[in-house]
Design goal:
Elements (H helix, E strand, L loop, with lengths): L3 E2 L5 E2 L9 H9 L7 E5 L5 H9 L4 E6 L2 H14 L4 E5 L14 E6 L13 H7 L6 H11 E11 L4 H10 L2 E10 L6 E10 L6 E2 L3 E2 L9 H6 L5
Parallel strand pairs: 3-4, 3-6, 4-5, 6-7, 8-10, 8-11
Antiparallel strand pairs: 1-2, 7-9, 8-9
Helix pairs in contact: 1-2
């Protein structure tokens, strides 16, 4: 069984869910939680984001919502292996979130949603649902976040740069105002490969752009930020 060691000594085994990825690592680093935050993880897979956040914030609680039975089972096993009472996984459809979790009950929401709206399906049900909008669209994710967040709550997500216009438009549509944006690049001269976005429920307009997150130097060696995100030390 493949197993990764995460922040705080926690371990993650993907099972049939999507494995640990750069997307999850940079998103967990981008997230800023208030004290005793109650976090909803939308499309939580095997629970890696919840594990990363629990390893980083000792006082947060995370509730994951996952549609795929195999991924949900992997999350339950990860929770049990790490003895984390602050993390739970709920098997359910985000499109029916109003029947699963109470509205306005969370201070933050996070998501690493499916990136692709069409094309050939990925191998396996779990892989297909993790990568493609076959069972949950980007609009569904925003709608779920808007329902779950209290006023002033933050929604953090990672996505592809070609969907940036959609990310902004959907934020406005669901009363989640885009507030903070960061582009992720493999190397300084590379095109952006990911976007990190923070939206706030009910906030006034005003978007701040952070310096780009560069993962590797031109020679391929990891940058200090990469080493910090992956806790590689000096």
């Amino acid at each position: 069984m493949t197993m990764d060691t995460l922040w705080g000594g926690l371990t993650f085994a993907p099972g049939e869910s999507f494995p640990l990825s750069t997307d999850s690592m940079v998103l967990a680093d981008f997230v800023r939680l208030p004290k005793a935050a109650q976090v909803a993880d939308l499309g939580s897979g095997g629970g890696v984001l919840g594990l990363l956040l629990c390893g980083r914030y000792s006082d947060c609680t995370v509730t994951g919502v996952e549609l795929c039975q195999q991924a949900h089972q992997a999350a339950l096993e990860n929770i049990d292996r790490n003895g984390l009472g602050r993390l739970r996984s709920v098997l359910g459809d985000l499109r029916q979130v109003r029947t699963i979790l109470p509205g306005g009950a969370f201070s933050c929401a996070v998501s690493n949603p499916p990136y692709f709206s069409g094309g050939l399906p990925s191998s396996g049900v779990a892989g297909s649902q993790a990568r493609q909008e076959s069972a949950c669209t980007l609009s569904d994710v925003y709608q779920a976040a808007s329902w779950l967040l209290r006023f002033g709550g933050d929604f953090f997500l990672v996505h592809r740069p070609e969907r940036l216009a959609d990310l902004m438009a959907l934020g406005r549509q669901w009363n989640l105002e885009p507030k903070l944006l960061q582009l992720v690049r493999h190397k300084p001269a590379s095109s952006a490969s990911l976007v990190l976005l923070q939206c706030r429920k009910g906030a006034k307009p005003g978007l701040r752009l952070l310096p780009d997150l560069i993962l590797f130097h031109p020679d391929g060696s990891p940058t200090s930020r990469y080493r910090e995100i992956y806790h590689l030390g000096d």
